[in-house]
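Recall that a protein's primary structure is simply its ordered list of amino acids. Everything else, from secondary elements to tertiary packing, is in principle encoded there. The following example makes that idea concrete.
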Amino acid sequence: MIPLPNLRLGSLSIGFPVVQAALSGYSDWPMRVIARRHGASYAICEVMLDQFLVAIKDNRKRNQHFLRISDDERPVGGQLMGAEPEQFAAGAQKLVQAGFDVIDINFGCPVKKVLGRCRGGFHLSQPDVALEIVRRTRDAVPADIPVTVKMRRGLDDTPASRERFFTILDGAFAADVAAITVHGRTVEQRYIGPSRWEFLTEVKRHTGPERTILGSGDLFTAQSCLDMLAQTGVDGVTVARGAIGNPWIFAQCRSLAAGQPLPPPPTLWEQRDVMLEHFGLAQQLYGDDRAGPLMRKFGIKYAALHPQHLLVREAFTKVRCLDDWRAALAQWYAEDLAGCYPDPAIHRVGDCEEAA
């Protein structure tokens, strides 16, 4: 066993170097709290548009879905996406005012509608604009608040795209960002094909030990998280789709890193208790009427840990309210049977519009 070094983002100590990534439509306050309670040392909120943040009024009830933070999840990162450097900086200031401990810049989202509006991964095609966003954001944010960047390995696999990637990477560190997360796929790939971990190795060798690099891509098991750390030399890893409906992955990582055997998957009653806890947090955030429909997608993901996951998944597609949620749990989680580890192939199907 080789002890893992503690992850730091600038002056902020994160600790265990396996964290929860930002996930559009998923990593809201309930998901982040559940992840933290199960061993994640840090989590990032779902991505927010700079235009939205600049335009909203200080109405806590209306905006709590995006801006809700609680002390038990600190430190917590706020991820920002946009097109214009000036508006990006103004959005970052809004996240600081809301209390986020880290500001994360999204240059990685591969969703077509995002790219079409010159946001997310589109910025990898224009280093000058990307670095202007980084500089303005860093200047707009107090010095004690770390600024980080999320990138993919390029827009595509052309030499020009590779050159632009390293221009942005080096320029962002020169502008005093605290860390950069690199996803091993290109924007053009979206989620098709394997994440290229060898590129993460190259990036870490390029930046050296004085720069903080986090890796992302194809982290669906606890062992894969530790494998990425060992094989690439990155300073930390961000678990994205592999954490949806599976917060236990963080505790499993900690056990393996401590030289202990992989813990068994949570039993059905252990799963049931966490699923009820998650629904209760969603009720606090969204209210009774909205919580049910919004939790449906989480139930579908939790179902992957059930030995009859296809039938359980179908049951959660029909959830509309807490009574439906309880009924699905009563039907499929009544007996405390052994759970199962989710099949990574299940997570690779579909596109959850990951913003991490």
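Residues 349-356 have pLDDT under 50 and may be disordered. The CA atoms of residues 184 and 197 lie 6 Å apart.
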